[in-house]
Design a protein that fits this description.
Blueprint (H helix, E strand, L loop, with lengths): L14 H15 L8 E2 L1 H8 L3 H13 L3 E2 L6 E3 L2 E2 H25 L2 H19 L3 H18 L4 H9 L1 H30 L3 H12 L1 H12 L4 E2 L4
Helix pairs in contact: 1-3, 2-3, 4-6, 4-8, 4-9, 5-6, 5-8, 6-8, 8-9, 8-10
Length: 231
């Protein structure tokens, strides 16, 4: 069944591009638009009730992240998952988040701890309910909150720009690894509650290394979604 998009007819101005981008990003990461899906700039614009320019700009942003492939005079498609890009993204994310969690351990308040604990509690329920998408959203919230607690919220924007390919693999991993991810978050939270920067950094490194241990298993289970090529 062809993908359908809600109308943004009432929207005007540059924010239209952001909304189209966010909708495309979500659908690609959540596999509503799986690798290989053909996308039409004209059709997306028609369904959303906007001009083609915001869609064109959103397509370009998606292509810069390696999530879609724009081939002039040929079909625009959702990109296959690049193993090389996943490994690069993991390197960048690990470098940033192991540092930022140390800062968080030094700077967070009791209110910050309470917010993180609430996120972890909701993740625990998501695991019990087998709510993979809900868990994934809360995972994003947990890591973003750590950046904000550290006093460097802009770092999350940098991380997000570098983890696009990781997001799809992470979501696939939650089919069988959500409980381990939750346990990691609980240990990170314990280290932050103890105001222990080194322990927090070590737990974060262990947490982010899961993708390196699981990527071959995930690729074997979903061979048509992956490519060996770098983008």
């Amino acid at each position: 069944m062809p993908a359908t998009f809600n109308s943004l007819e009432s929207l005007r101005g540059p924010s239209a591009t952001d909304l189209v981008f966010e909708e495309l990003y979500r659908r690609v990461v959540e596999f509503e638009l799986p690798p290989g899906t053909k996308l039409s700039e004209q059709e997306v614009a028609r369904q959303m009730g906007i001009s083609r320019q915001p869609v064109r700009d959103a397509f370009f942003r998606m292509s810069q992240l390696g999530l879609i492939q724009i081939q002039p005079q040929r079909a625009t498609t959702v990109a296959l998952i690049s193993v090389a890009d996943v490994l690069k993204a993991n390197f960048v994310r690990t470098a940033l988040e192991t540092e930022i969690v140390e800062r968080a351990a030094e700077n967070l308040t009791d209110a910050d701890i309470a917010e993180l604990a609430d996120i972890v509690a909701r993740q625990r329920k998501a695991v019990a309910d087998a709510d993979r998408l809900g868990f994934h959203a809360l995972d994003e919230a947990f890591h973003q909150q750590i950046c904000e607690s550290a006093g460097h919220p802009y770092v999350w924007a940098i991380i997000r720009e570098n983890k696009a390919h990781m997001d799809r693999v992470r979501l696939l991993s939650l089919e069988f690894n959500a409980a381990n991810a939750l346990a990691d978050h609980e240990r990170i939270l314990e280290a932050l509650r103890a105001r222990d920067p080194m322990r927090a950094s070590s737990e974060m490194r262990t947490h982010l290394a899961w993708i390196l241990r699981l990527i071959e298993q995930i690729r074997a289970q979903n061979p048509t979604m992956f490519t060996e090529r770098d983008r």
